[in-house]
Amino acid sequence: MSIMQNNTHSDSEGSTPKGTPVLRAWGSGVRLSIMAILAIPTAALAGWSLYEIFKPNVLTEMEIAQLALSMMLFLWLAMSFWTAVIGFVLKLFNIDPLSMRKAQPAPRTDAPLTKRHAVVMPVYNEDTRRIMVGFEACVRELLDTDNGKQYDFYMLSDTTKPEMAEAELAAWEALTARLGDKSSQVFYRRREKNTGRKVGNLADFCQRWGNRYEAMIVLDADSIMSGERMNDLAYRIEQNPDTALIQTIPMPVRQHTFFARFVQFAAHLYSPMLATGLSFWQTDSANYWGHNAIIRVEPFMQHCGLPTLEGKEPFGGDILSHDFVEAALLRRAGWNCFLLTDTTGSYEEVPSNMIEYATRDRRWVQGNIQHLGLLGVKGLKATSRLHFVFGAFAYISSLLLLLVLAFGTADALYRALTPVEFFTAEYQLFPDWQIARQGLMVATMWGTAALLFMPKVLGLILALIQRRDEFGGVWRLIKGGVMELAMAILIAPLMMFYHSYFVISVFAGISVKWEAQAREGSMVPWMDSLKRSKVATIVALAWGTATFIYTPALFIWLLPVLIGLILAAPLIRITSSLGLGRAAMRGGIFVIQDEINECRALKRVRIGMANIEPSEAGNVKAPVPALPESSWQPMVIQDFSAYPEPRTPLAPEAA
Q: Residue limits of the Glycosyltransferase 2-like domain (predicted)?
């Protein structure tokens, strides 16, 4: 029996009724062509202007290197710019990016769900109280709905520290006692060995219990989702039998330090617009971000068993950023993957300071660069390959930018320290004057600035038009937007330095441990701030001194970069302040809707964190529900050299 036959039923079986709205997107190839038509000429124009600046004088090797690296950067910036512009236009006129109509049809909810679904939360050495409070909030959100009986809930622990494992079990017993009769639907499983990291954790769940469920909603350790959003995902997956993945936009919440509130505000301000632009050209080939998404279990087991790659890291070994690859494999097998662009009811948390933020990025750098080694996998869709390229380039671009600045500085210093030769031939009537095309230089600078910052301006304008009340009104929104822009400019040089170091270390074969992320805010000590920024600061001081002495004009141009690097330690320290974060909130800076109008799921977490002490977890003893009988249905490990046959198309009556 084919996969489609397993997932598609007739009306007489009480499944998806005829006429049910389905997720549909037209013209994926056309939309990628539109993006190419917009992005490539934009990048070419920027590259041409830079070439025209260099051309009047003899092109040096360093200028040629700058041109080559800049063209890659311009193409990346142009793609991001046009994604934002398209998202702005579609949001402004309330056009759905998939159907290109006024609204994407909502799933029918006038009948209960017909299939069973699992809600799974993989955890690894996490703060016990936080994961239990968040998990319980999601459990209660769904159990309080009419479809509560259609769900089972699994906490899948890979915790390796004995004291944390004991705390988890004690907290679980307390949770089941609080749930009472409803605890029969919640289960806890801990693996003694976390083979395969998160990939192995989810694979173990699917192999043991996957055949009991139509789909699984995957949560991260810091995920919070409303009952309405999770039910919406379940309805959509049931009513779209050709779809294997639906990804939501997890919005940061519960942030208190100044840095984390800045990141949280930026996500709430720009994500709806940017996600709409992404959805426009991704269409039915959306990416998977690893959590806050629903996945159809059967195709996941058939097509997402990941092999261990041959060779050494970064391109060999276990696949680290597995989520991108899983989405690509689902598309390769013919299943649709969609991104929902409304941001309600799906939440996560972010690192509380710049050091933790960079540490998280270090893990992602290695995983995303590994994807470059998978570009040659047979049968992948063009959009999936773009996901791999853009995911890696999000970090490699920092190194390219740093190299452009370094080559530019070296070229300027060379010219400043080398006597100018006006007569380069033995018989020459007129001198070779050095030509500086000031007008074109200024135009290129402003054009590059537009590519960089216009998406932020568009996001702010869109919010002022449509969502100002979500940010506390016009004045608070403007204050937050201006402060966010200033902060982004200030911390960008340090993040560029970090990402450049991370990329170099990955290609040098320096591996990284994937540890649990510190999520609660605390002030970074001065010693840690200095330790994590001293190299960047020393480089910036030497860089600034040399350019100030020999090329003062270049020094002025480099000031925005130099200031951020020289002030790195104070920036890390001050922005990690809880007091400054609270002061900003009182002053109406970085206010978000979920602080003005808190949803029930977030309220559950806030109350739970305030009232459940870690010491209380072991005071109540309750029986842990027995796990369901396991099936051990193996996942199919993919052979990346093989090209799988596409699955059976949807029958007309099923559509």
A: 217-406
* Unique residue bearing structure tokens 């996998």: 377
**With contact defined as beta carbons under 8 Å apart, do 591 and 480 qualify?**
yes
Quick one: pLDDT band at residue 577, thresholds 50, 70, 90? very high
How far, rounded to the nearest angstrom, does the alpha carbon of residue 27 sit from its chain's CA centroid?
25
Specify the 3-state DSSP secondary structure of 472.
coil
Q: What dotted CATH number matches 117-357+599-611?
A: 3.90.550.10
Which residue reads 């004690």 in tokens?
Answer: 170
**Who contacts 477 (Cβ-Cβ below 8 Å, separation ≥6)?**
460, 463, 464, 468, 471
Phi, psi of 87 (to 5 degrees): -60, -40
Pairing between strand 293-296 and 346-348?
A: unpaired
Task: Tell me the two tokens of residue 3.
Answer: 């996969």
CA pair distance 426, 433, nearest whole angstrom: 16
Which pLDDT does position 16 carry in this prediction?
39
Write the single-letter amino acid at 121.
M
User: Could you write out the DSSP letters of every residue in 82-106?
Assistant: HHHHHHHHHHHTT--TTT-SSSPPP
Nearest to 122 by CA among 112, 134, 113: 134
- As a whole number of angstroms, the distance between CA 36 and CA 62 comes to 29
State pLDDT tens for residues 126-167: 999 999 999 999 999 999 999 999 999 999 999 999 999 999
- pLDDT for the residue numbered 423: 55
Going by C-alpha positions, the residue among 204, 188, 187, 207 that lies closest to residue 196 is: 204
Of 491-495, 531-535, 641-645, the range with the lowest mean pLDDT is 641-645
Q: Where is 109: in which H helix or E strand? A: none
From residue 68, give the alpha-carbon distance in Å to each of 50, 72, 427, 651: 11, 7, 35, 50
Please tell me the pTM assigned to this model.
0.90
DSSP 212: G
Say if strands 151-157 and 186-190 run parallel, antiparallel, or are unpaired.
Answer: parallel
**Dihedrals phi, psi of 235, to nearest 5 degrees:** -60, -45
Complete DSSP assignment for 580-592? HHHHHHHTT-S--
| Inter-residue contact 479 to 384 (CB < 8 Å) | no
What is the residue-wise DSSP string for 335-401? -EEEE----TTEEE---SSHHHHHHHHHHHHHHHHHGGGGTT-TT--HHHHHHHHHHHHHHHHHHHH
Contacts of 607 (CB under 8 A, 6+ apart): none
**Residue in the block written with tokens 């998806």:** 16
Interacting residues of 403 by C-beta distance below 8 A, sequence separation 6+: 65, 69
Q: How many residues does the chain have?
A: 655
Contact 281, 31 (CB under 8 A): yes
In the block, residue with structure tokens 């390959």: 385
* Average pLDDT over the chain, rounded to an integer: 88
Distance (Å, rounded) from C-alpha 572 to C-alpha 528? 9
Please say whether the dihedral angle defined by the alpha carbons of residues 385, 390, 393 and 397, taken in this order, is positive or negative: positive
What's the CA angle centered on 170, arms 165 and 174, to 5 degrees? 145
Q: Where are the domains of the chain?
A: 117-357+599-611
